[in-house]
């Protein structure tokens, strides 16, 4: 819409959030609140989008993609009316309508905004704003109408009479107006009120006083206009977001054992016939293939699982890749840079970091593999440690194909083991080992007969 400009108000302190973080940067479904409003705004293909920022302005700019956004700074937070007035320099001569949105209203949709704009144009209105009907309208300004149904005024709750507080229709705070009217009305606002602020809602009274045509559009789904003012409201919205996302994946052929305890962010992708157990978090850009099985209490961030992967109970995967048919867990931790080939087995209490494991590799118990490349069909015994850090730098370990690493082995990097190497139990490897070799540390094993009885006698004498 080449004749449309959009102003998003995102400068508020969010006092009731009790946070140092700008309110519009609190996350919902893994994304900042403001990002949802920007997405809806972009869906209207406007000629220009401006975001008014104030508290934590630089943080807001960094957190949200602003390549197509004009950032406007509200240096002092003097109310929503003052915030909108800060856009005057950017839009005063704009040849079209201005749509004003709030950065903390994440559920607003492109379709609803298109309906608002269409009604505004069809009614040839100077100002059109959105309303909604709520069963519990406390906290919102009420729409008082005349005998013919026309807007008479908006009354804020603190100023409303007992009868007016029973009105279910509320002001949603979303407006479309001509720049000519809007900025003239904003210049006429007064801050003579309890908060000493300039209220955007007062432009409705200004329009009525000027006898300009004012129209309203009621939101079909009142949830779309819900704003976030408290942590409790954020939590309620989070639940709604998760219900929507979980329903989408179940409809697409994914089994969620307990949807109420399954948390899936919007950027996640899941293949058909995958089964997800309870208390699972799938975050960021995680991709799960088809026929995977996640037993439960899994925490995945930007992980990529191909098909037929089995994640046993209580695993953590971050920025890693897992090949077809791999089995991970229980109680395993795949850290960033881990890449598992096909049919790899990573067992209980195994941790990997920058580890590339070839097809069929097994590390089933109590092992740390860091900065390591492991060839296919190698078996890593319990208690194996790659010593990759000397306090100053990280060093790599390379293990060939079909290597058998005995339990309680220490590999001191940098070190390389060739193909078909056997590492004896409790060996410390400090030098490269050629293919096909057996590597071990010579130790003399001694036994003292009768030692236990002698010890007991000695301890008995001490006690006496």
List its salient traits.
464 residues, alpha/beta, Spore Coat Polysaccharide Biosynthesis Protein SpsA, Chain A, UDP N-Acetylglucosamine Acyltransferase, domain 1, 2 domains, 23-stranded parallel sheet, seven-stranded mixed sheet, elongated
Please, how many domains?
Answer: 2
What is the CA-based Rg, rounded? 32 Å
The CATH homologous superfamily of the largest domain corresponds to Spore Coat Polysaccharide Biosynthesis Protein SpsA, Chain A
Structural class: alpha/beta
**The CATH topology of the largest domain:** Spore Coat Polysaccharide Biosynthesis Protein SpsA, Chain A
Name the shape in a single word: elongated
Give the termini separation.
Answer: 96 Å
| Oligomeric grouping of the chains | single chain
Strand content: 25-35%
CATH level 1 class label of the largest domain: Alpha Beta
* Annotation, overall tally of beta strands: 37
CATH architecture assignment of the largest domain: Alpha-Beta Complex
Number of helices: 10
Low-confidence stretches: none
Give the overall average pLDDT: 94
Q: What is the helical fraction, as a range of percent? A: 10-25%
**Main beta sheet: strand number and arrangement?**
23 strands, parallel
